[in-house]
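Exercise 7. Predict the structure of Calcineurin-like phosphoesterase domain-containing protein from Brassica napus.
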Amino acid sequence: MRLNPKSQASSNLRRIIAPPPPQPMTSFYLNSLLPLPPSHPQKLLEPSSSSSSSSLLSISNSNEAALKPIVINGDPPTFVSAPSCRIIAVGDLHGDLSKTRDSLQIAGVLSSDGKDHWIGEDTVVVQVGDILDRGEDEIAILSLLRLLDEQAKANGGAVFQVNGNHETMNVEGDFRYVDTRAFDECIDFLDYLEDYAQDWDKAFKNWIFESRQWKEDRRNSQTYWDQWNIVKRQKGVIARSVLFRPGGRLACELARHGVVLRVNNWVFCHGGLLPHHVAYGVERINREVSTWMKSSSDEEDSPEMPFIATRGYDSVVSKILRDSLEAVGAKAMVVGHTPQLSGVNCEYGCGIWRVDVGMSSGVLDSRPEVLEIRGDKARVIRSNRDRLHELQVADYI
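Solution. The predicted structure, encoded as tokens:
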């Protein structure tokens, strides 16, 4: 049974979402840092699994076979050891819940019965950022990924996210690319949270199931004049600011994720990784941005926003790519950010894979594609002529 929306004045918004207790997480948008003095990047060694910031996930299968552990190091996760695990990379989603589900279904990790069950066993999924902006179901997508991560971990898998520039922009208060309907989702989400009091985790994970009904109710109550309702538009901006400002509920959710993630010998980031980023310290980058996202802007000692600029894969050339990969101890890099008209593809001897296909209806509305990685090999999985159950699978490269 769904919970009925409550009409509340915008003055109650701040009361509804008090900043959550500090979480042991950190993150940053790695596509570009303030240039550092020239220095030779140090080879990053795999952190010891005994580190205080590491965790171990393991589960035995139905036959009680040997454990298959996933070891996670860093706050937020920065280095992941997932031996023998299949890895799926998913590109930019930009608020399109339908395409998000399609992507996860062709990857074989999400059930197609509409119940949003994890069926990927010990698969590791990495979404490379830009969940926000240009679409209407941003919070629902964040909710779905958190729910699936919980289910995946119970089966020996995991779901990771890497923050992109649009996540950072929203925490900064830059709402230029926000869909009008996404402002409505923020209003609905704040009203919905009232019924859960302080049980944030339960409310957040349940939003994926509740959001559809809230959206339908909103559409049924809309009138022709709503598009010119300035008060309603202002309420949407206020609601989004409360949720995404530094220290806000959704800013703290984003702070659970980094901007660079290495899984086995593959590195994932939104737009690119340069040698001076590695020299600065990948864990340090993740930690500093996460701290900024979690710190209330009302605090006198709140950190300043880290310098961030947007650069895509086209800023990475062959030699720089090799230097970056060597420094971070990776075989290849997987990035999003720049829509690929030709679909998922690779360059520089497949040292860099580009997985943003502009699938969101707010971008190119293209058919979903994902990258599947097994060991040192990768291949593209795409739906055949927009029919999800007929897949085109390339050979491993």
